[in-house]
Design goal:
The structure is a single chain. The chain is of the alpha/beta class and 249 residues long. The chain contains seven helices and 15 strands. The chain folds into two domains: 136 residues, Rossmann fold (3-Layer(aba) Sandwich), CATH 3.40.50; 93 residues, Beta Barrel (OB fold (Dihydrolipoamide Acetyltransferase, E2P)). Strand 8 and strand 9 form a beta hairpin. Helix 3 packs antiparallel against helix 5.
Length: 249
């Protein structure tokens, strides 16, 4: 399997190359480019499966990559390398685009490559990059990317009823698309949606959209019924807080 590193800093390319060689045995060929346009030429010539792409480069940002590649060549996964702020990282998460935060750690590289390999062949990379660009330009995030067996489903926050942990996966209940099994743990969504005030975690296994609470039942220790008639448990240490919140909705 081939990989390409596009970064204007030689030292950054060297460090990343070493980390890939030491932690990603499935990658047997690694190419390098010091700017976006030469990287695009290498993509067309060598057809790498994974492209490690720096965002902040002279002349052209890494985000512009699809401006220079025809749609039929979009058969690779992108892993951005960035020193962006926490705000921008949230944009990456919501757009289901993977990233390595500089300085890069070995565990980050292995995890990102494993995720990328799972997406190859059904990447929807064009749509995901469009969502990322929109998120970076607009602090009012409106959608989140949900990785699933068919690719990536982009769902508006307004359409999410609740999320329930299922091991290392999450069941996301939506208004328009039913329940989607997503290949990310609930913790990921708790962190990604923490700034969206309508989401609340009443139990370690549940994250709910307060807008879709249908009823609160006191018996059997207390539980919530959502608009889709699914029941949600409330932890004992969250009951008082939850009741205070819903009384002020």
């Amino acid at each position: 399997m081939k990989a390409l590193i596009i970064d204007d800093e030689k030292k950054a390319r060297q460090v990343l190359r070493i980390l890939i060689e030491e932690n990603c045995p499935k990658i047997c060929e690694i190419y390098e480019a010091d700017n976006l346009l030469s990287g695009v030429e290498l993509i067309k010539q060598e057809q790498p499966s994974i492209v490690f792409l720096d965002i902040e480069m002279p002349e052209h940002s890494g985000l512009e990559i699809l401006n220079f590649i025809e749609k039929e060549v979009h058969n690779f996964e992108i892993i951005f390398t960035t020193a962006y702020s926490e705000y921008a990282i949230q944009a990456f998460q919501l757009s289901a685009i993977d990233y390595l935060l500089k300085p890069v750690r070995p565990s980050q590289v292995k995890e990102a490559v494993d995720k990328a390999l799972a997406f190859i062949g059904n990447s929807q990379i064009n749509k995901r990059l469009t969502e990322l660009k929109m998120s970076l330009q607009d602090s009012n995030f409106k959608k989140i990317g949900l990785p699933n067996g068919d690719g990536i489903k982009f769902v508006s926050f307004e359409d999410i009823i609740a999320l329930e942990a299922d091991g290392m996966y999450t069941n996301v209940s939506t208004i328009n698309d039913g329940t989607i099994l997503v290949s990310k743990p609930l913790k990921f969504f708790v962190e990604s949606l923490q700034k969206i005030t309508s989401f609340y975690r009443p139990h370690r296994s549940h994250l709910i959209n307060l807008k879709y609470i249908k009823e609160y039942i006191k018996k059997d220790g207390g539980y919530i019924i959502m608009e889709n008639d699914n029941t949600v448990s409330i932890s004992n240490d969250k009951k008082e807080e939850f009741l205070t919140i819903v009384q002020n909705i």
